[in-house]
Specification:
With 197 residues, this protein is an all-alpha fold. The chain contains ten helices and no strands.
Length: 197
């Protein structure tokens, strides 16, 4: 296999969307002598691109593994006693972190899209702000975390609706949206369940 060549000029790096699409594509990993279509047989290009369109099994494995912490917190909440508050506080922290992570996903989605609107970047920062807003009642000594834990659970469960609404959903590989839906509903419902104990 020929050595990979990375032909990137300075002007290209100054364009965030082009940079993101370039490094998330198969071009820089191509075994062809030159990046892109030059020097590659059509069959090689099609085979390589087909491979990169598939959802990696590791994405599913690590994705489902992300449900483990909240499942442990649910068991702690069911057990009751002193572990109940620990379970609720821990699950709130985990739910807020994941929700914030989804905001980063939407930001990347906006960068990868050709039809991104300015407000899409605003939507991407909302999860982090909502996580902070739901945390502040604890700082002020208000009832916490039950009501705000339920809010986070609901937001997580409904978050896949935003994926299809924003531009850039077309860049995801087949199977991604199904995985995304399962993980969000699973985490959201688990979080809601913990808030009820």
């Amino acid at each position: 296999m020929a050595e990979t060549q990375l032909a990137v000029d300075r002007g290209f790096l100054q364009q965030p969307r082009a940079w993101f699409r370039y490094y998330s594509s198969a071009a820089i990993y191509s075994p062809c002598p030159k990046v892109g279509v030059e020097g590659c047989a059509t069959s090689d290009q099609e085979t390589l691109m087909e491979q990169t369109k598939r959802l990696s099994p590791w994405a599913a494995r690590f994705g489902y593994a992300g449900l483990i912490p909240q499942s442990v917190f649910l068991l702690m909440a069911v057990a009751g006693g002193p572990s109940k508050w620990i379970a609720q506080a821990g699950s709130f922290a985990y739910a807020a972190l994941i929700f914030s992570f989804l905001g980063g996903l939407w930001w990347s989605q906006a960068l990868a899209s050709k039809d991104t609107k300015p407000w899409q970047f605003g939507i991407a920062v909302v999860p982090s702000l909502l996580g902070l807003v739901c945390f502040m009642p604890w700082v002020w000594g208000w009832p916490w975390p039950e009501p705000y834990l339920a809010i986070l659970g609901l937001l997580l469960a409904l978050s896949p609706l935003i994926d299809g609404w924003l531009s850039g959903a077309e860049v995801a590989p087949p199977g991604w949206h199904t995985l995304r839906l399962r993980l969000s509903i699973g985490l959201g419902l688990t979080t809601l369940a913990i808030s009820m104990f």
